[in-house]
Amino acid sequence: METAFLCVACGTQHAPSAGPPPSCPICDDERQYVPEGGQQWTTLEAVAKRHQATLKYDGALLGIGCAPSFAIGQRALLVRTPGGNVLWDCISFLDDALVEVIRGLGGLSAIAISHPHYYTTMLEWSRAFGDVPVYLHAADRAHVMRTGPEIVFWEGETRAIAPDLTLIRAGGHFAGGTVLHDARGAGTLLAGDILQAVADRRFVGIMWSYPNYIPVGEAVVRRVGEILEPWPFDALYGAFWGRRIETGAKQAVAASIARHIAHLHRPWP
User: Model-level pTM greater than 0.85?
Assistant: First the structure.
């Protein structure tokens, strides 16, 4: 019997196999890491037994995570719209109770994910809600460890997935690094960690690798700013609980880009 194993370090579910994969390409990449104890594997069933869902509002949006934290520890966000709910980013954890809660909130009409570190158990999520489409940018196709017909590889720079909701290819952290723009109200940018709201919640960081502290260069940072410039937004949500900028986010992004570039040119002390 084959099993779809989950990487304990990053939470990515791999294609079913008779035994654990020899390695996790997501963790072998320099943007992630293999823990000191080596590569370890688990299953969705085992995670569901040892963890429980955490649902709470993170600012104006409902966040979905699990306790205790698993793998990278990001939380997903439920974007509720009159035309259907969209799950932004994804977590490895999923059980019947969580599915029922989300169905009670209207279910899901689509899933969209910012970059490969959060692909996790995306097919399990899709199938639990009726095979809803999972939108991934085609530039990151090589990082998909488990494929299925539910995955929609979109190309180009933008993709509308619902009224007022548009995926934007911002790049930076990954070639297909994606943010989700919600045009309602003053505008909201769901940024994953393509632009990560930092600890002081007044700036964002744009990195090639967050755990390994590898920055991106000036051209990349400038390009991210140019891509986002036409899009109005006042709030920004990062990938982790509490990492958000509730107002003035567009100005914060511009200031962060300027600060990043200034430090790249800063002389040695």
Answer: yes
